[in-house]
Design brief:
The protein is of the alpha/beta class and 403 residues long. It is built from 13 helices and 14 strands.
Length: 403
Amino acid sequence: MIKQTKWTVLSAVVAVTVALAGCGNNATKAPEGSTATGNSSAGATQKIIIGSAGPLSGSASDYGESAKAGEEYALQAKKEAFKQLGFDLEILPQDDQADAKQGVATAEMFIANPDVLAVVGHVTTGASITASAKYEEEHLVMVSPSSTGSNLTDDGKKVVHRICARDDQQGSKAAIYAKNQLGVKNAFIIHDKDAYGQGLAEQVKAQFEKDGVQVVAFEGITKGEKDYSAIANQIAAKNPELVYFGGYYAEAGILVKQAREKGFKGYFMGGDGFDSADMLKIAGDAANGVIFTSTVGDLTGTDAGKQWIADFEKATGKKVGIFTSFGFDAMNVTLNGVEEAIKANGGKKPTREQVLEAIHKTTDFQGQFVKVSFDDKGDNKYAQVFAYKYENNNKVFIGEVKE
C-alpha cells in the first residue's frame, strides 16, 4: 500500500519537469518494434519512457503524489546520462485512483506504448495486483515503492518487484510490538475490506493468535463512509486494550475520533496507511497517541538524509511526503536496470524482456534510503519495518521494529 507522511508533494525540478510530464502524457507510439531496435546509424536520439502509476486523485492521492514527486526527481537527475547513451528519457505519470479496475486500464495504456520499458508503481496493493496480471502477459517489469500486500509477489509473476516490506512482515511485527512493547493482552481488529487493509489486518490477527493475544473482534467496514459510529459503539462495548485498523487515513481518522468520543481510552494502531498529514486534520487531537508502522524509515536520521531533503525541497519548492523517498529509490533501481540492459544489448535500445531480466537480477543496489536485492519472488531482501506515533500533532519516529 499502501500499501504505508507528510504533505502532498508534486513534481520535481520546476519548469523542466513540467515540460517533461507534458511530453510523457502526449507521447506517441514509436515505429513498430522500436523497443527492440538499437540506436540508428545516424545517431538519432531514441525515446525511453518509464511509466509512473499511483493514485493522483481521491483519498489516497497523498501517497501517489508523493511517490511520483520522488520518481520525477530521480529521473530528472538521470536524463543527461541517458542522453549520452543516445536516449531521450521520459516519465509518463498516470492516475490509477488506487482502484483495481483503473489499475488494469493504466497497465493497458502503458503496454500499448512500445517506448514504455518499465513501470515504477503501482503505489497501492489492489491496483498493483490487477495491473501485474497484464504486465506479466507483456513482460513489462514493475517496481513498486509501496505495495505491501503479501500475495502480490506470492502469485509468482516474474514482472513484479517492490523495494518495501511485505504485509506479513509489517503485520506480524506490528503485533509483536503491541504485545512486547505495549503489553496488550487483547485487541479489536478492523479492516476496510480492501486488499491492503484486510491483508494487513489478517496478518496482525494471525500473529496475535500465535502469541496468545486475544482477538475480541475482527470486523470490516466500508471505505468512503463518513460515519463509523456503529463500529465505535462496538469498540466501546468490548473495551479492548488495543484497536488495530487495517486501512487508510481517511477512514482511520474518523474511526479514531469517533472511538475516542465513545470513551475508548486504549491504544489505537495501524499500518503505513495512517501515515499522512490528513490523518491529523481528520482526527484532530484524537490522533495523539496513535501508533503506526511504516516501511519507510526516518529520513532525517542521517546527515545525508537531511541534505537530500534540503536539496529536494530547494529544487521543487515542496515538502517531502510519505513515499517521496521510496519513489526516488524505486525509480533509481529501475533506471539502473534499464542502463544494465542497454549495456548488455551493446548500447542499443533493449527490449522489455531484457529490462525485466536486468531489474530482476538487481543485487545490493544502494539507494538513497534503502538497499535493494530482489529475491526470486521480487521482494527486497533488505526491507525493514519502522514504528511511529502521533504526539502533540506531530509525527514522531520510534525506531525499527524487530522480531
